[in-house]
Amino acid sequence: MFDKLPISSKTEKILTKSLDEAITVEEANHLMNITGSDLYPLLATADYLRHEIVGDNVTFINNCNINFTNICTVRCGFCAFGKDADDPEAYILNDEQIIAKGQGAVENGAREFTLMGGVHPDADIEYYEHLLQLLKGEFPDVMIHGFSPTMVRDACLASGIDLAEGFERLKSVGLDTLPGTAAEILTDRSREIICPEKVSVAEWIESVRTAHEVGIPGSATIMYGHVETLEERVEHIDIIRNLQEETHGFTEFIPMTFMHEYSPIFLSGQTNLGATGTEDLKLYAVSRLMLRDIIPNIQVSWVKMGFRFAQVALTAGTNDLGGTLGGDELSEASGAPDGVDASIDTLDSMVRNLGRNPIERNSKYTEFYPIAHGMEMPSK
Predict the structure, then answer these.
(1) How far apart are the C-alpha atoms of 367 and 365, rounded to whole Å?
(2) Confidence of residue 378 (pLDDT cuts 50, 70, 90)
(3) pLDDT tens column, 167-222
(4) Which own/partner pairs from 342-347 qualify as long-range (CB within 8 Å, at least 24 positions apart)?
(5) What's phi and psi for 14, nearest 5 deg?
(6) How far apart are CA 197 and CA 243, in angstroms?
(7) Is 128 in contact with 152 (CB distance < 8 Å)?
(8) Which residues are within 8 A (CB) of 108 and not within 5 positions of it... i.e. 6 or more apart?
(9) Residue 48, Cβ neighbours under 10 Å: how many?
């Protein structure tokens, strides 16, 4: 496969091996550091494996973010969204406002609500149950991708119950999938710098493992390009891989490049923030080589990358474009390059221009839908 490409012998050996089996942490660290003529073979290998594992379908979901509050007690150094309760820009949506957001999304064909907010000091399991019951009562056919491991953990503490009971209660009233947020970088060294008040690595793993055990699948994420090292990026992916081998509960892996322009750590003087485009592509490709088919769906976030670069990232091992994301105030506050609202037609056009097949999906990747203009769904 590489006989006519200029490539170092070590990189060629690793990539050849990766065609048949997952690469090791040591091999991934080597690939994270490659430059020059070794880069294209890495991307081509990841794209080849993507084709072998999931075919040429590119999936996405018609969804809507409902950010029910921006009040947050866990003030992370990377987040420009959270506010103190006495901030003039702080808000909590009431029931009527939440229903109105949901109604508008459903009228536009939404299949999922992403229910997210700050870590409110008074939020307990009963409050989150209320939000789920409110939305499921009005929109029973729309899946809810909601909360975060930190939010659920804190709510369980506030209600005096353990994690398993908390997740079981949320599942019983309509929580379909759990976002992979709060993972950030799963090394305690970096977390002490960017999010010292958030769950530790061990607590995050325990929370996600518990959700999977009670039957709530969900996404896994990585937020990179801030204070972490390249080795910590690989360590993070390896933690996700090991947990997936145990629980099989992750539906997708979502790398999220850090948008630093409005972040507290950038505004306070932290430098060398933000990943380069080459680093972005290497992370997507190495993720595919490490995860292979154990997490077959690797998502590129167009809201983080912009439409053009997200399309390029689809050639580096990824196969999902996330969602239409109407109302994603968290990303909007961070400076999303192409806004935070995409139409199905926009995503459809991006995929067809690449010569691949656009397919709508549900939150769990268990149901797939032909695009509205009437094309038959292509086979894998």
Answers:
(1) 6
(2) very low
(3) 999 999 999 999 988 888 999 999 888 888 788 999 999 999 999 999 999 999 99
(4) 342/302, 342/303, 342/307, 344/60, 344/62, 344/109, 344/371, 344/372, 346/307, 347/60, 347/302, 347/321
(5) -65, -45
(6) 23
(7) yes
(8) 62, 64, 324, 326
(9) 16
